[in-house]
Amino acid sequence: MLKKVTIYDVAREADVSLATVSRVINGSSVVKANTRDKVLAAIQRLDFKPNEIARGLATSKTTTIAIIFPQMLFAHVKDMIGGIGDVGRHLDYNVCIYTTDEIGDADPIDSVIEKVVKSRADGVILFNNEHIQHQIELVQKYKIPTVVIGKRFSDERIGSIFVDAKAIAYNIVDQYLAKGKKDIVFIDTKQNLINTQDMIQGMKEAFIKHQIHFDENKQVLPTSPQYEDSYVQLMGYFKSHKHDLVFAGYDKEAVAVVNAASDNNIKIPHDMEVIGMMNSTYASICRPTLTSVHMPIYDMGALAVRLLTKILHQEEIDTKEVTVQHLLMPRDTTM
Prior knowledge:
By secondary structure, the protein is an alpha/beta fold.
């Protein structure tokens, strides 16, 4: 087995001190040009690969990005993680994944953030969820450069990537109200990458425009992010309810709506139309296929990494609040 080349070998080959090799690796300007060239030549001859963690000890940078999300959000964020990983590799950053969930009565996010701090990650990517405000307060406390996906927020060290959830809901509901379809219900879940409070506000503003009373207690139906639980709840609900439109905050909940309504002999879309969000795999496997709002999930992850690295390197940034475009993808659950 070939012996791994170390910084000691480079120092011996170049006939310089370990400190000099470290300074060259970390781009220090105090090393004379001829000495730097000698060290670089030794590195090339020995095919030395500097250890990124060791470099971080000298520079206080680890070239590591931490991403944190509740396990319940995995179906929402898996494609975003692909975008984060690809751009991270392109920019020579390592990506570490941390997941959170409630254990008993406690949310372990505080301990997860402490682990991130101890790992000395350069920055963090968070995903909107029901505890996002507390998570933002924690990264602010530790002064960690951060990008939040799914919620609009920014300060000196924090940026965000999001869709205009209020505009999405407003535009869809406005179109249905204009057609005289006033019985509209929104399916809301606690764990959601989309800011559902903004969506509810968009619905409300559309109702106000059409001078129709909006009753949040009747027109917003909270449900579980677990399909099995939401389906059981909705099976009971649709025994006595039917609406012009049911608009869900995520495709999985929209599929539960379609299946529970169909099992109650409500014909989709003739008796009731259904729209989901995210345009995920759930939309294509649903029967009938699900109309959904498409968002560039992969691109949102990629943009998050690029924005975070700009914050880390203190590059010029046009805006720390980046809105991505959305597009309604009509399918068979709407007419």
